[in-house]
Amino acid sequence: MKYKILSLLAVILFASYPTISKVVLAHNSPLVVIFITGALSALVVLFVYGILPEVKKLIRFKKQEPYLFLVAFLAGALAPTCNLFGLAHSSVLNYVLISSLQIPIAAFLSAVILQEQITPSYIISLFFLALGMIIYSTQFFQSTFHFSWNDLFFVVAAFSFALSDVLYKKKVSHLPHEMVLIVRNTVGAVIIFLVMTFLSVESGLQVSFDTESLIGMVLIVLFPIIIAQGLWYFSLEKIKNIEAALLNSLYPIFATLIAFFILHESILWYQILGGGIMIGGLMISQVHFSHHNMYADHLRLHNFKHH
Fold first, then answer.
1. What angle do CA 32, 229, 75 make, to 5 degrees?
2. Do 15 and 255 meet the contact criterion of CB atoms below 8 Å apart?
3. 113/105 Cα distance (integer angstroms)
4. At 63, is the secondary structure helix, strand, or coil?
5. 8-22, 54-68, 78-92, 154-168: least confident range
6. How many angstroms separate the CA atoms of 120 and 278, rounded?
7. Annotated domain spans of the chain
8. pLDDT tens column, 15-24
């Protein structure tokens, strides 16, 4: 339970990103914000742990380096870049809806690669999560869907995020977490820099170092990136990936609540309804997991008494 709470805390900190970035994006381009915050995050972690010790660790775990860099590329570069390209040519509604595909994709990959079991109650919880997400995003079916080929960017991003978590748990979860953060954010910053240089989707890149932007970037580096990513990878090492994916589905709810308390944005009835259905779906899965674990403990105790 402790690690589930930590992963949920990571999701809450991830969800602070839209609120903080709203201030920063008033004077800076999205690509610039991603590049600067990613590079700063890697530098801060390197400063705390030391460049030489981290290089030695990287050499010591050289057999896992291909998987580590693949995880970093998927989560730190490919997925964010695809989301940016998608948002440049599609709608926010499509982004929110298609991004939620990360949950069933993660469940499928976890079952195939990690041999994690998908139970009937888990499938039921996915149904309620999907229903709640649709109600939440479409203003109770008032908004219509208009999909295009550009939405495939969101599909690739959802698959990339899901695959990166599965590969992390399968191949590199035993590595020092700070090393994962350094590589992920360094690779992400480098790729984003190349995108800005050669494939920028923005007509003009805007950079500002005003006080609000600097404070906002520092907060992004500390909370949604360093602390949130650290907690996420630490907890993902201990719990099932399919459980972590379900908890990650609550991201839009927490993002709305944070915007409500900090920016005083309104919460509408359909958001409350959709969020309630999503939380209900999550509770269904957690009740099953708790029951399953208790039943397993009962069987072990029963077998112990008879030996």
1. 60
2. yes
3. 12
4. helix
5. 78-92
6. 17
7. 2-305
8. 999 899 888 9
